[in-house]
Specification:
Length: about 475
């Protein structure tokens, strides 16, 4: 199924690029930028998305500064003079029913500590063509969030409509009605201008929508996840399974992403385009974390007030006990089934490790990049979909004296047994003479059922 999806996606994007080459109708005069874009699209098409070439092409696209030359209107707030850790970006337009922008901003600010807020800037792009509505909204925002505006933690901007490409007579893809095409095309441009604006405000950029609730201290959770990623390659980290919510980027990728959205603005909705962008930049698999940090509050989507009850069941409001999971490699001699690779058991990815019937003596080892004190370890085996595939008998050991060459520890100390496939033990700080470098799960009995390791959580200190 996954394979099929990926193939379809690849085919879809090739087709799209082909259509684009035929159809690219620039909204400005045929200047050198547009020529370059056409060339790029052609390259992409010809190469059938050959990974390395495309990455370079996208990079080149990102270097060209003329394409998104917009004079933004600052509706409220002042840009910070110092680069922040995180920009939280969202667009808002007039809705037929309720508007949740103020609630969303309240949630962002109330769920963050003062320390977190110092490292964050929120950018709102009020993107309605109705200036009257934008003004009313700014007034409300200014009244309620005066302190945040003054402290440079909140910015409200607007990209004037003269910078927008045509939004009438667009291609009617996917059998979408004309107003639907218009809505989603404009939304792509709204996002492109927002991202283009935000590109050098911070190191990381988080996309949310104007109708979400945030979980407590989401910035700290994001920081922990980033630390767990170590220096592994990623383009998009996902902190929600919904639409264009909770998607994290390196800010340095934003110029390219903005251009990408502009280039394909009329082809498909943003929540498909961002998937193509990730694939083009060669991150093949979704990296989504559980629990989710953002939840829809809206019951109506911004498009024509159609009912939109999509909720993320993985959302958790309070994550004060979130594990630290230091960067690590995973090795196992249990035969891995398909794509259920060992790393998926670690750092609570929305996925799991799946191994074929393990035998006594098989092991699954987490090898830390650096020795680290360990306070608590919690391991779940089996999962809702495969309750039989739990570890029937096994133990957990802490390892020291890592061998730099073969990723193994020389010396192991047992710390406890699995009970009904679960392991949870704290107070481990003084279990080993030196800080552990490995955690090893050892299978102690042959089992004919397969083994799912659904999560491995490691805390490096006590308390939140
Ligand atoms: C883009 O610009 C950077 C810095 O100016 C440069 O190092 C890089 O080679 C450029 N990339 C391409 C593909 O032109
Ligand atoms: C951007 O646009 C302004 C006017 O709209 C123009 O003066 C300026 O030269 C442009 N900058 C670049 C880099 O093209
Ligand atoms: C963003 O980049 C521009 C141009 O390099 C610079 O003038 C501006 O000060 C930068 N803004 C921030 C917040 O770093
Ligand atoms: C456990 O499995 C291994 C390898 O599959 C086999 O060699 C061994 O005899 C089995 N042990 C028992 C007690 O069944």
């Amino acid at each position: 199924m996954r394979c099929f999806l990926r193939r379809s996606l690849t085919m879809a994007i090739s087709l799209l690029v082909f259509l684009l080459i035929i159809n690219l109708t620039p909204w400005t005069q045929e200047d050198s930028d547009v020529k370059e874009l056409k060339q790029w699209a052609q390259d992409v098409g010809l190469n059938q998305l050959h990974a390395d070439r495309n990455w370079q092409n996208l990079q080149r696209l990102g270097n060209d500064t003329n394409f998104l030359n917009v004079s933004y209107r600052y509706l409220a707030g002042v840009p910070p003079h110092k680069k922040k850790f995180l920009t939280v970006g969202l667009c808002s337009v007039k809705r037929k029913w309720s508007n949740y922008l103020l609630e969303t901003l309240s949630s962002v600010f109330e769920q963050s500590t003062q320390e977190e807020l110092q490292e964050m800037i929120v950018v709102v792009h009020l993107a309605d063509p109705d200036q009257e509505w934008n003004s009313q909204m700014v007034e409300k925002v200014a009244k309620r969030f005066a302190a945040q505006l003054l402290m440079g933690r909140l910015l409200v901007i607007h990209a004037p409509s003269e910078y927008y490409p045509p939004l009438a007579g667009l291609k009617r893809n996917f059998n979408d009605a004309e107003d639907r095409v218009r809505f989603r095309s404009k939304q792509n441009v709204d996002y492109a201008y927002l991202m283009n604006f935000a590109a050098n405000l911070s190191t990381y950029y988080l996309m949310i929508e104007d109708d979400v609730r945030c979980s407590k201290s989401f910035l700290t959770t994001i920081r922990k996840r980033l630390a767990s990623q170590g220096d592994s390659y990623w383009v998009t980290l996902e902190f929600s399974k919904l639409g264009y919510i909770g998607k994290l980027y390196h800010s340095s990728d934003l110029p390219q992403l903005a251009r990408f959205l502009m280039l394909f603005y009329q082809e498909m909705p943003c929540d498909w385009l961002f998937v193509h962008f990730r694939l083009l930049l060669t991150q093949k698999e979704v990296i989504r974390f559980k629990p989710s940090l953002f939840q829809h509050i809206g019951y109506y989507s911004s498009f024509q007030g159609t009912a939109n009850k999509l909720k993320d069941e993985d959302f958790e409001e309070d994550l004060s006990t979130l594990p630290d999971n230091p960067p690590a490699d995973m090795v196992t001699d249990i035969a891995t089934f398909g794509n259920y690779l060992p790393y998926k058991a670690y750092s609570n990815m929305a996925n799991f490790f799946w191994g074929k019937a393990p035998s006594a003596g098989n092991s699954f080892t987490i090898v830390f990049k650096q020795a680290t004190p360990i306070f608590r370890i919690q391991i779940h085996t089996g999962c809702r979909q495969h309750p039989e595939d739990y570890l029937q008998a096994g133990l957990v050991e802490l390892g020291t004296r890592k061998n730099r060459c073969d990723l193994h520890c020389a010396s192991y100390t047992p710390i406890g047994l699995f009970k009904h496939g679960q392991f949870d033990r704290e107070g481990l700080e003084s279990s080993t003479a030196s800080a552990p470098e490995c955690v090893r799960i050892v299978v102690t009995k042959n089992q004919s059922e397969w083994l799912v390791i659904s999560s491995i959580s490691i805390w490096t200190k006590s308390g939140p």
